[in-house]
Amino acid sequence: MELNWTPQQNMLLRMVGEFTNQEVAPYDMQIHADGHYPEGLLDKMIGTGFLGLMLPRQYGGADFDPEITAEVVRRMAQGNASAAVTLEGHYKTVEQIIKFGAQSLQDKYLPTATSHIFAFGMTESSGGSNPMGIQTTARKVGNHWVISGNKIMITNGGLATVYCVLAKTAPDELSVFVVDSSMPGFSFGKQEDFIGLRGVPVGEIVLDEVTVPADHLLSQQGDGMLVGDSAHDDARILMGAALTGIMEHALDVATDYANERKAIDVPIGHLQSIERKLADIAIGKETTKLLYQRAAALKVAGQSYSEEAAMAKAYGSRTAVSACDDALQVLAGYGYSREYPLAHLILDARAMEIAEGTVEKMRSAIAQSELNK
Amino acid sequence: MGGSRTRHWPHTARHLSTHHQARQIANGRPVVAILLEGDDDSFEQQLADYGPDEIIRVRDAKLKRASDRTMADVITALARAERPDSVLFAATPQGRSVAPRVQTQLTTGLTADCLDLRYDDNLLVAVKPSYGDNVMCEITCPQARPQMVSVRPNTFAAERVTNSQTVIRDGDVPVSASVGDTIIDEHVAVSTATGVNGARKVLSLGRGAASDQTVALARQIAAKLGASVGVSRPLTDRDDFSVEQQIGQSGNTIAPELLINVGISGATQYLVGIDQSKLIISVNRDDNAPIMAQSDYVYVGDADAFLKSLAKRLGIN
Amino acid sequence: MKIVVCIKQVPESNNVKFDPVTHNLVRSGTTGRINPFDKNAIEAALQLRDAIGGSVSVLTMGPPAATEALRDGLAMGADDGYLLSSRAFGGADTLATGYTVAAAINKIGGVDLTLFGRQAVDADTGQVGPITAELLGVPQATFVNKITPDATGGLTVQRDLDDRTQTVALTTPAVITVRSEINHPRYETPVNIQDSFTKTITTWTEQDLNLDPDRIGLAGSPTVVTKVYAPTPTQRATRPLTGTPDEAVDQLIAQLQRQNLI
Asked: What is the value of ipTM here, to two decimals?
């Protein structure tokens, strides 16, 4: 049973379902094998208006809310998790520009957000989980900021044209700036070769004295952690949604197989050992769905959703890995074969135990939040 | 209406199975074939071999490449003059385009794309599939006349009769030139892999034979056998197949001499679509698949392995 | 060019079932969707509008719920919609439907082109297009897989009649029914979905269209559905091909040779 969506939202979800079934799902195996999207898929996603889903109307967007945005990501992930995560990386970045960007900056970049992919660069090779360890700096020169440094492992890195980057504006002060790939001093670096989510380009950008106007600073100077945390929170809801979609995909494959495959005379779906696995997968995906939908509902209601978003991602990622593993076991030898998607579904889900804050960091944040209540 | 002057009117010489069907259900009623042909055509004898009691021929240069509207006007005029009880069309694209215009001019009922016909007394009962062949409907036209139907090609095999005593006469109706719908070019469709409809042999693929390699191998085998490649519903999602190759979806009933089903389980609409095939071979992993009971020969096993063996046997590398 | 696309709302799925006791049709799922073949007609209309200008309206006959199908068309990019809805239209067969649709086309006025999909996936007749053309007194091109506007305001179209293809010079006003190969229908976009709820949908009844009560709905329908049932294909005397794939193929080839099929 579905939630009580408006007619507009229902129509949107139906369209996304059709799009996923016809344009995305058929390429799921191929995307993993090739390590990139098939020719034309991104153009189709852009042409169908996915990038402008949550963008305000005045910038050419459709102004759908965060709850429905998460549902779109979930449905996309049922077809292919990479496509869902490319949208996730774009949405979370655009959202921070909407939340924290000066009017002049929004007017400059948001109209391009319907046709160009955006990305958020935080990680550096030296940074790890300590943001203060980053090397990228921004110094004020007159009415401009001059930014230098390298950002690695950016979701959509190399594909995106507009980037939010976290930089040090003082030894103990972080700020977020918007740069674009056409600026002098901007170049692309190394692309990662990851084991999962292989459609998503993940890469490095190199900023060598990139000069941006003052209004490219998001929020206030020194608000880097505020903006970065907000991006994490928004991303984690969408990751919970993507993980739910992955589990739904795995459950589909497993139930299809369990209905068809027979042991002696009965379909294996009637064996208790198989039933238990199918039930666990189903419970896992429903629980994750409840977590991300609750975080999204809190967000729409204007309440704090940081802890719930962290739970959706922390719980969802570990649960999805184990659910896909259970599904693989249901198919046994076939599950282990490259002919079936379960191996790559495990690897796709596994990425989300790391990206947007590791599970360990998530747990620590949730625990601290509980300790301080 | 009705009685001994009841007439059946299959139109167009191209679809002889319709004539045969008219003869089968006529039960003493005269069967009259309508033949529209160009001034240098002569399809009469070909048509007579299938045994109508009478052929009404309208021969005119303007009928060489006539528009739907021109044909509809001619047939309507003949119907008004001859007052037939029932009119049958072949449910070809042409028949399905002309018949509704005739129906409209005559303000009567038309049942499209029938799979079977019979008379209950003088009421023509048309059996028509709906919901993509998942449902059968019986439809009648109790009041208005003539009773019009279009009959799906290949649902009945055309049979020649010997010693036909067909009377041929010319229909005296005006033929107007096409205005606003001029056919400026016409050519016989190149028989590529597209059509399964009139194919003598068909190799048909389903969900269990959907990989790129399997499809490629099946195409080679089909070429070697001189067969068209058909598909069941799931394969129409592929870029290289469409509903045009789909068997058992409205319009695509097949009646080949040989049908080989590979990896097809046999949804109802598919089974209806292949019912008229002469020899049916099916290859499927599941020996309980519905397709199996409707096949003459079955092989229970892996589709790929079977196709590879078949390819090898046919000398394909 | 002023274009009207006639569409139909059909059940979500064709996987119908029969109640084993009552033998009545059980439709799975309650929601409707736009007939998929009609999306090809809408796409053809939008491409024509984009190429030579004009407007695209979508029109349907059905209960108020058929508004959903019109919204789908609007979300693909059509400009406005017409819903022909009245209890008196209930039970219409193709002739009564064509009569009602033709009257609406006339009332809209100045329509250059009326487009239809090849057939509806539920009733599978494909008749309403030609019936409407006859009632409008205009030429038609059916089973069309290509439409090219020409310099004089007419259209050059290609018809695929299975055994042959035709190129037809069509003057407007005209009726065209399109095959599904003509195009890949665009998806509704999120922006168009939002906009579709602010576009105008005009509802007309038999009074608005000034229709003859004897020619609409059940009264205007010469045909009657007398029975609905599940098809039963013929069972055959199945013989197995046995052994390894190679052995089975040998048995098959022997059969084919015996029957002169190879």
From this structure: 0.92
